[in-house]
Amino acid sequence: MYIPGMRRAAVGLTALAVAAFGAVATSPEQADARPKPVDVTLLALNDFHGNLEPPSGSSGTIAGQTAGGVEYLATHLAELRAAAKKKNTITVAAGDLIGASPLLSAAFHDEPTIEALSMAGLDYASVGNHEFDEGAAELLRIQNGGCHPVDGCIDGTPYRGAGFQYLSANAFTTATGKPLMAPYAIHKVQGVKVGFIGMTLEGTPQIVSQQGVAGLTFADEADTANRYARELRRKGVQAIVVLLHEGGTQAATGGINDCVGMTGPIVDITNRMDPSIDVVVSGHTHQAYNCDINGKLVTSASSFGRLVTDIDLKIDRRSGDVISAAANNVVVSRDVAKDPRQTALINRYKTVLGPVAGRQVGETTTAITKTQETLFGTSLGESPLGNLIADAQLAATDDEQGAVAAFMNPGGVRADLNAGPVTYEEAFTVQPFANNLVTLDLTGAQLYCVLEQQFVTGRTLYPSATVGYVVDPNGTTGTVADPCAGTRVVRGSLTLGGTAVDTAATYRVTVNNFLAGGGDGFSALTGGTNLVTGQIDLDAFVDYLTAQSPVSAPTLDRIRTTAEVPAA
Question: What is the pTM of this model?
């Protein structure tokens, strides 16, 4: 364990030793004879989300450079290993390697991503919330191998499992109380032990479908890390690294290697961690930062394989403690040679995928982005692409189920649409979760409660064009226990199809099954009745693009503030 000031303390002990036992030899020859520290390099990434090919649009740039793509990522990792001592390098990840993936990976249940990252030399990874998208049994299959129980071996070859170890310290099988997967790993480098504890965020059940986390219990991140840090120390491990799929956000002025005005769950979690923990490799928020929090090195490498965090540790050969830790976020630029093995992998899966991916399903007049507009000084407003998806979901259920409104969750909108022709693969990348549409009955009072819950969860539901309402920035925010107590949504301002909502009347509303189950904290939606499950959300989106092309970006005028609409 490295503690600031430790070297000064060591000097004091040396002085005491001289006083007690006489002169201590300090000649250059004798000093050189002391064991030199072991240099260990960690190469870290997070939130890869199956982006085998370079991401498009704003998702494919960082720090002013185009970045990402596993062909380039593998080359950068190899170069970073060559710059360090290869045998002293450990490659790690902090969750969400799979899930919410582009079609090239998702069509094969993310087996291509696991194969690619294994080939790129990944050693250990924590689970993230998206590792649970298809449930615990599927995650175990991803780790251990075997054909998919329904779709079989889609590419015609056996799936051999991950060439790296997933770690899951705080996801427990409820029935047994035991961790679902190995909670930690011990890696030896030149005789010293480095311990890795892997975890996802405790709130995973709130952001994953209930089927995905069925039979599992998730524990507090700091408490779990401290528990296993004690166990590691009992096994003689003093250098401890936490791979945690939870993170924070720095101020907009901060660069990829800065830590400006850091906020978010990672701050509190790290502050509660035991001093024996030296490094926290974090993720989930898709941010880049390089921080010292309470004497611990805390890093994140943004998302989609656009950065690699190069972490240098010096470990005392005798005690096993970390003497120093420093990090640098390196851009995965595309000015290096492509790794030929990764290129072959991508081409193999593209061939199997066939013409489906390239089929044109529509056209846009301009780029339609997922970027949220600013509301109250934060990104809590509408999104052009989010609104478009809500319109598509309403169109898919207005005649069939009598829906009069639709709402889309922001986390389900994963990429921008470029201007021009839209392929099936591009549409899939925008909506990769294959959620079913669910149409249900809500009273007007429940609708107001759902909208008030946005300000409790910090997530805005994108509304269909039939919806309009006014928000008061001076209103009060409800609580988790009672979101309906909020007064942010001006009463009487909510309209559906231009008609004011009656709190006692009942309305048919469409959401996806994730939201209908209370996902993203929208528990008010679980009070809906007369639920009817419809088509897959992606199919609704594709049908809408085809029918309405060329499609333009919707106007952002569905949510307005009291500054725009003064009280009568």
Answer: 0.83
